[in-house]
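Problem: given the chain below (174 residues), write out its structure.
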Amino acid sequence: MKLICAAILFDMDGVLVDSGRLAEKHWRSWAKIHNIPFERIAAVHHGRPSIETVRLVAPHLDAEIEGPKREAAEAADTDGLVAIKGAKELLGRIPPNRWAVVTSSRKATAIKRMTYVGLPLPRVLVTSEDVVSGKPSPEPYRRAAELLEFGSAQCLVSRTRPVALNREERLEHG
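Solution.
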């Protein structure tokens, strides 16, 4: 398989870092405190900033307070965090100026998670603090492409788990 692109823009959680159980634990706890069915949260939270999720599932609450408070509790916890299998090897095979991480997390959370699981920190990290409209808006991905100095059409967005490249496969830069 030959992949031709200028750069790869990786989501962090669920793509490079397995944080699913941790996020679920903290969202379930928050849901119980606020008497909100977890299923409503589960349907919308993945890939969104906490503040946006709170706005969607609990419009009666102050999202400006609840979102950061909930995220801070999760950010302080590393229990169960692991790198996705093959992520470290894959990132090591891509030149540092050819990949970025795009996440709905805050910068401190992203750095803590990447470091905790032993992944290299990207030269370009776009977080919820760097954009006006968070994911699923394309703005964070466009910002990452711009910071890497590539057009967005030249970049591949990886929103699924990466597969380590084997010896016969290689990343070509166009």
